[in-house]
Amino acid sequence: MTGQDYALIAGLVVILILGLIAFVVGVRRSRSTQLPPDETSPFPGGKGADTRERDAPPLGTTTPTLERPEAAGTRFQRLKARLSRSGALGNTLLAILSRGDLREEDWEEIEETLLMADLGLGPTTELMDHLRTEAKVLGTTDPERIREVLRAELLRLVDPTMDRSLHVQEVVGDDGDKHPASILVVGVNGAGKTTTVGKLARVLVAEDHSVVLGAADTFRAAAVEQLATWGERVGVPVVKSDKEGADPASVAFEAVRQAAADQADVVLVDTAGRLQNKSHLMDELGKIKRVMGRAAPVREVLLVLDATTGQNGMRQAQVFSDAVDVTGIVLTKLDGSAKGGIVVAVQRELGVPVKFVGLGEGADDLAPFDPEGFVDAILA
Ligand SMILES: Nc1nc2c(ncn2[C@@H]2O[C@H](COP(=O)(O)OP(=O)(O)OP(=O)(O)O)[C@@H](O)[C@H]2O)c(=O)[nH]1
């Protein structure tokens, strides 16, 4: 071969490589559905404003088979056996009340049992007063009759009249336009927010709602990945920023806008965990809500509370509620917890209902809260 031949071959190789690179870049561009420039973004050109992409399957992967989550209606029934440790509360109370002709130390034992279950001081006193009266009037040791009285009293405290529905109907804004129901999810670190957003998406998908998720926990990269996986499993798009530490308000805003563009029914926005005593983080939450509200009225603010955190959980609840007007509570980790009384305590404290309870780590282990089922499980 002559020098000219070598030069020709080298030229051909270079052209081939360049062609290959151009092809790969072209494919990548077309697969990644880049969002259009955000002219109305409150943070034009700000952190995260230019990097958001909707989830697209990575190159070379096939679309996963979508899961069909369990319908909401059957969940509590299936999971209520996991409240068995809260059942210790009911059994202890029944055992004491059945002694008949109760002495002061019996009443003290009842009080202690209720406080240990995190029922809270007010509800405990109230329940004791009612039970004392009933016990006198009834003058019985019949366990069945006592169970009936206790059931009625506990149910009254849990309050079956509260509206526990998740408001997912479309909303008409001040602009007269229809918007998807937007739901902001807040809480302290590790309470179970990301998991709850993923599980809630499944509840909504099972009810045939179209959903968009917003990964506004930009603080913890793993949370974004976690949420992306939840979304992927049920075919729900996840709006996220690829920049770590991006402005969460910006991501939340974009998620709501994306949901509107997709004509989705509901958009669920996950946020980073924050301690209630860090005022700048609580202010940030207020900002996320305000900015989301510019895209569509915020329909619900769900506070995720770890049921095992007791009185500390109650303090968190109050601060979060002051910052963002909580409309509903999701109590997680109620499985295996003996602290079922927190349902009553937190509702009393905030005046808002427990709407969902987490009863396990499985994907469908989140159930709409059922007051009667709950009290029955405690007294089982
Ligand atoms: N047993 C049980 N575990 C739960 C429940 N809900 C959440 N978890 C677990 O709690 C842990 C924390 O959940 P995450 O969803 O990551 O918590 P997070 O609030 O998003 O955490 P940060 O983003 O760090 O604030 C995970 O191991 C979950 O599986 C529940 O109802 N029962």
Beta fraction of the residues? 5-15%
Q: What is the number of beta strands?
A: 11
**Count of helical regions:** 13
Taking the sheet with the most strands, its summary is: 9 strands, mixed
The CATH superfamily label of the domain at 168-326 reads P-loop containing nucleotide triphosphate hydrolases
Class by alpha and beta content = alpha/beta
Which CATH first-tier class of the domain at 168-326 would you pick?
Answer: Alpha Beta
Averaged pLDDT: 83
Distance between the termini: 91 Å
What is the topology, as strand order, of the major beta sheet?
1-6-5-7-4-8-9-10-11
Work out the helicity level.
40-55%
**Rg on CA atoms, Å:** 26 Å
* CATH architecture descriptor text of the domain at 168-326: 3-Layer(aba) Sandwich
Shape: elongated
Q: Which sequence of SSEs, written as H and E, runs from N to C? A: HEHHHHHEEEHEHEHEHEHEHEEH
Small molecules held by this entry: guanosine-5'-triphosphate
Low-pLDDT regions:
22-60
CATH topology of the domain at 168-326: Rossmann fold
Function: Involved in targeting and insertion of nascent membrane proteins into the cytoplasmic membrane. Acts as a receptor for the complex formed by the signal recognition particle (SRP) and the ribosome-nascent chain (RNC).
Transmembrane segments: 6-27
Main location: membrane
Family: Belongs to the GTP-binding SRP family. FtsY subfamily.
